[in-house]
Amino acid sequence: MKAIAVFPGTKEVQVVEHPEPQIERPEQVKLRLLEVGVCGTDRHICAQAFGSPPAHSDYLILGHEALAEVVAVGDAVTHLQPGDLVVPEVRRPCADPSCRACQAEHQDFCQTGTYTERGIKELHGYMAEYVVDDARFLHPAPKELRQVAVLTEPLTIAEKALDQALQIQRRLPWQTSAATSTEPGRGLSAVVLGAGPIGLLGAMLFVIQGFDTYVYSRAQAPNEKADIVTAIGATYISSETTPIEELTQQVKQIDLVYEAMDAAPMAIEIIQHLNRNGIFIFTSGTNPRQPYGIDSAATLHNLTPLNQVIIGTVNAGPATFTSAIEHLGVFQQRWPSILPNLITERHPMQRASEVLLKKPGGIKHVVTIA
């Protein structure tokens, strides 16, 4: 079968002939891949910033944001059948029996760091015509989401971030009442840093949760991302025309910051303006080759007396994949003409290297497998 692979030694991205996998265990499912999203992680892997192929392989099949169709199931699989659409998880648990996180199927909190990840770390990814996977890592997607379900994995980043924030804010009893259970963000402001796919999907999630949502991104309006932000009922603010001091005056109180732009200086500066009891969520990893110094005294001056929290999160677990698929359905109903616009272009496998080796314009680019 054909697959898109990167060769770490040469940084080459090629269409390769790879052995077609077959079901070998009763709990396995064979998938025909439909499409795979491309993100910054894939480009970093192609540039050899991180990522590693499986043992004894010269290449790594890329892709972790996938949508697939079931073509065959093992004898022990009862909840899936051929023709079903599924979204697969990325991270797989480590083998250490002392890792309580992985033993509890929360491999996104793996304590040993020896987990594996499809298309990223020691496991081939989904940019292939076929894949065989364990059924427990596959999440059914409704057929009516066929055109947008590939956005599930990037949405899981926001899903996990929000879930962690809400769990932390249980420390505030007035925010856990029945009145806030359906819209926990009611009366609070969320600032999303960045208007890429992870930022825009996060903004959609915060809007439906009741947050007064702002998206702070570089490009000046009007532009396609600003149009989407406005259409979902959020506010778009350009960092080119509105410095952070003016941003904080416009927002007035910043209760939640969701960072999705990999810009350490800006993020650190905004921390200084976080509201009392506020939460700052990092989802991007900064480049260690470009260190950025911070004024730790100034940061702690606010962090401690104002009861603020800073957390980092990225890879999501099983529950967040389920909630992401559910919320994509909500987005589709609420913004039927907006959600599909997050996908800028779909590319055939033969052109995959064009979007993997350079960053094209637009929002989300997808490689079509079948």
Automatic annotation (TrEMBL):
Key word Transmembrane helix present: no
Cited SUPFAM superfamilies: GroES-like, NAD(P)-binding Rossmann-fold domains
Organism: Dictyobacter aurantiacus
The Alcohol dehydrogenase-like N-terminal domain, residue ranges: 26-143
Cofactor(s) required, per the database record: Zn(2+)
Lineage, opening ranks: Bacteria, Bacillati, Chloroflexota, Ktedonobacteria, Ktedonobacterales
InterPro entries given in the database record: ADH-like_N (IPR013154), Glu_dehyd_C (IPR031640), GroES-like_sf (IPR011032), NAD(P)-bd_dom_sf (IPR036291)
Domain Glucose dehydrogenase C-terminal per the UniProt entry, residue ranges: 147-368
Any Pfam family hit: Glu_dehyd_C
GO molecular function: metal ion binding; oxidoreductase activity
Alphabetical list of PANTHER family matching this protein: GLUCOSE 1-DEHYDROGENASE (PTHR43189:SF2), ZINC-TYPE ALCOHOL DEHYDROGENASE-LIKE PROTEIN C1198.01-RELATED (PTHR43189)
Protein's recorded name: Alcohol dehydrogenase
Keywords of the record: Metal-binding, Oxidoreductase, Zinc
